[in-house]
Write a structure and sequence with these properties.
Elements: H1 5-33, H2 44-77, H3 83-104, H4 111-145, E1 148-152, E2 158-162, E3 172-174, E4 183-188, E5 190-194, H5 196-199, E6 205-208, E7 212-213, E8 218-219, E9 224-230, H6 236-248, H7 253-283, H8 286-299, H9 303-322, E10 325-327, H10 331-338, E11 341-345, H11 346-350, E12 356-361, H12 367-381, H13 387-400, E13 408-415, E14 419-425, E15 431-437, H14 447-451, E16 461-467, E17 470-478, H15 485-494, E18 498-502, E19 512-513, E20 516-519, H16 524-536, E21 541-545, H17 551-556, E22 559-563, H18 568-573, E23 576-578, H19 585-619, H20 625-646
Parallel strand pairs: 11-18, 11-21, 18-20, 21-22, 22-23
Antiparallel strand pairs: 1-2, 1-3, 3-9, 4-7, 4-9, 5-6, 5-8, 10-23, 12-17, 13-14, 14-15, 15-16, 16-17, 19-20
Length: 649
């Protein structure tokens, strides 16, 4: 179970207190270690100062140590060596070496390292827990939104019930504007259903008796009676949510890599420390044996790596944020750096969220009548949030400029599955009836319809305008490709990445973009399986999407990017949210990530080499703690500078 808000709040309060203690301890420890004349262990001031440092370390351990100890113990019980063992080993070496220095009066103390290790571990675990909690909470919130249905009782009354109470013979009622909570077959009713989140279809589609409805969609204007087929955890929506939740419980790529290193590094450090103690107990004194064995653990503390890697990662995340890409963690940088395949959703990702009017066809050439038509359309549609209404209003405002509509809407009627009909009063005071919607509103045999080019296969949607039962205009709606998209495809290809476009839209407007074919009519499961197949073939996949139907594929791939206008589940599932309306920051982000992780790999090799050489010298008793401290500071500065510069592409 995830921690509740109160538990998380207490953890951050403890971390804040620990950081204050660590800061004070660092200043005091630095003062003691840099004194020209070390304090005499026989003086009271010596034990007061060292006692304060010891107490500060124990206080930080008391505040933050329990999760580390518990996780290390659980890993030990499972006979696994994890990154927790490395943290535990590091702070034990620092604490043990410092205690030896305190009670022998020889060498420097490193009590502040204990606090730093504890704080770094706690911050990393807290951020990971919060990220996972947000994603799981978003999935649970979406499940709750589609958890209740309206049924028709035997007495003819409507009643809300939970999905767990639904039976195979239950008649589910979906009212206009309500969510669809079951997968089922329409028994009666007709209307528009918005399926964008589940199928990628940009426009509401007409549904009537015999058609299938999916949970996760919305009725726009129709009332449906539905016979449920799937409702208890086996809806298509539940499959998507299960994929998201399962993926969030899997370890991250960086965690897996860290555990692999720890598997051999921790036994190596422990073995060298024990061997050092055994050899020096024979050839030297007990104090030398203990001091040198603790020095091995101290020099093995991965301070250089621990400082440089966060610097590089946070520098990279800052650079991405300046590009308009807000990433959840450094794991996204890892995925970007390794990616060799980019998969794009179409609707709402490559295309803009809103549709646009491509053309207005008129059976007359009178400019005045054209403006009157646009004024009437604007007056009727301006109060609606329907995607078609937004497109028509945007076009009408652009064409009319600041001209007042001078049209009064007297009454309005939604025509389920067809469109809208309104009674208007125009500028001359005449009453007219205007209908906007599908071709079914047009009288049979209208000659102008036969003059229009065929719409099938073009990807465009026709919206007919009928005034007093006479066809007066036909709008052609289309999706608009985001600015710079073709250039992005070219740039991504120049970086050596392949691309694919997946969509649930059964009739996409584009069959390819910059040479990349569009795979259309795909279900959420088909998208997910396509991504899994690519990864099974050895590709590292980045997925860009915006709808609920993209969430499963996002969870299945190495890294994912959600559009800012996407669904809440998609944005919480994704490793990164892309702000703005263009994709142009993607190629630059890939370059930054590759550069950063090249620097991180170099720093890792340097840090491991340094640790191994340092441990060897410490084991031989020739590495003085002051020299070790200087080497650690120097190496930290070198790798930190390399890390900070790595994001400057």
């Amino acid at each position: 179970m995830e921690a509740d808000p109160e538990v998380s709040k207490r953890i951050w309060i403890r971390l804040g207190i620990a950081l204050v203690i660590a800061g004070q301890g660092m200043m005091l420890s630095l003062g003691l270690n840099t004194l020209d004349t070390p304090l005499d262990p026989g003086r009271t001031a010596y034990w007061w100062l060292h006692g304060i440092l010891i107490a500060s370390s124990l206080a930080v351990i008391g505040l933050l140590g329990k999760p580390l100890f518990v996780e290390t113990w659980n890993s030990w019980v499972r006979r696994r060596i994890t990154v927790e063992a490395l943290f535990l080993l590091s702070f034990m070496g620092a604490l043990g070496g410092s205690l030896v220095a305190t009670f022998t009066g020889v060498g420097d103390v490193y009590y502040e390292v204990v606090a730093i290790v504890m704080c770094v571990y706690t911050v990393g675990k807290s951020i990971t827990r919060m990220s996972r909690k947000r994603a799981l909470a978003a999935a649970e919130k979406l499940r709750e939104d589609f958890q209740q249905v309206t049924i028709l009782t035997c007495c003819g009354h409507l009643r809300k019930i939970d999905l767990s109470e639904v039976q195979a013979d239950t008649q589910v009622i979906v009212a206009p504007g309500e969510p669809v909570a079951v997968d089922g077959i329409i028994v009666s009713g007709r209307g528009f259903v918005l399926e964008t989140a589940m199928t990628g279809e940009p426009l509401p589609v007409v549904k009537h008796a015999g058609d299938r409805l999916l949970a996760g969609t919305y009725s726009v204007d129709g009332r449906f009676e539905v016979r449920p087929e799937h409702w208890r955890g086996d809806r298509r929506l539940d499959e998507v949510l299960h994929t998201v939740e399962s993926a969030r419980l899997q370890p991250s790529t960086l965690q897996v890599h860290a555990d692999r290193i720890v598997q051999w590094f921790v036994p190596l450090v422990t073995g060298i420390s024990l061997l050092t103690f055994a050899v020096w107990i024979i050839v030297g004194t007990w104090a030398e044996a203990l001091f040198n064995s603790m020095a091995v653990l101290l020099v093995a503390c991965p301070c250089a790596l621990g400082l440089a890697t966060p610097i590089a990662v946070w520098s990279g995340l800052h650079r991405l944020a300046k590009l308009g890409m807000v990433a959840r963690s450094g794991h996204f940088l890892d995925a970007l750096a390794k990616a060799d395949f980019v998969v794009f959703d179409k609707t709402g990702t490559l295309s803009e969220e809103d549709l646009v009017v491509a053309e207005l066809s008129l059976p007359f050439a009178d400019e005045e009548r054209r403006r009157e038509l646009l004024q009437a359309v604007l007056a009727v549609e301006m109060e609606h949030s329907h995607p078609v209404a937004r497109a028509l209003c945007g076009f009408a405002r652009q064409q009319l400029g600041t001209t007042n509509a001078q049209v009064t809407v007297q009454s309005m009627q939604i025509l389920p599955g067809l469109g809208v009909r309104a009674q208007l009063q125009n500028a001359r005071g005449h009453t007219q009836v205007l209908a906007i919607g599908s071709e079914a509103l047009v009288a049979d045999g209208d000659p102008f319809v036969s003059q229009l080019p065929p719409a099938a296969g073009s990807g465009k949607r026709r919206i007919f305008v009928v005034l007093d039962e006479q066809l007066v205009g036909v709008f052609q709606l289309k999706e608009k490709l985001r600015a710079g998209t073709r250039e992005v495809f070219a740039a991504v290809r120049s970086l050596g990445l392949k691309g694919a476009i997946l969509t649930g839209d059964p009739e996409p407007e584009w069959t390819s973009v910059d040479g990349v074919e569009v795979e259309f009519g795909l279900s959420p499961q088909a998208k997910t399986e396509r991504v899994r197949a690519l990864q099974a073939a050895g590709s590292e996949v980045i997925f860009l999407g915006d709808g609920i139907n993209d969430s499963g594929a996002m969870s299945a791939c190495a890294g994912s990017i959600a559009m800012a206008g996407g669904s809440a589940l998609t944005k919480s599932t994704a490793a990164c949210v892309l702000l703005g309306n263009t994709l142009e920051s993607l190629p630059k982000a890939i370059e930054i990530a590759r550069n950063i992780f090249g620097a991180i790999r170099g720093n890792m090799i340097f840090a491991l080499t340094y640790n191994i050489v340092g441990m060897a010298l410490a084991a031989c008793g020739v590495l003085h703690p002051i020299v070790a401290a200087l080497l650690m500071v120097g190496s930290s500065i070198i790798v930190s500078l390399r890390a900070s510069r790595s994001a400057l592409v």
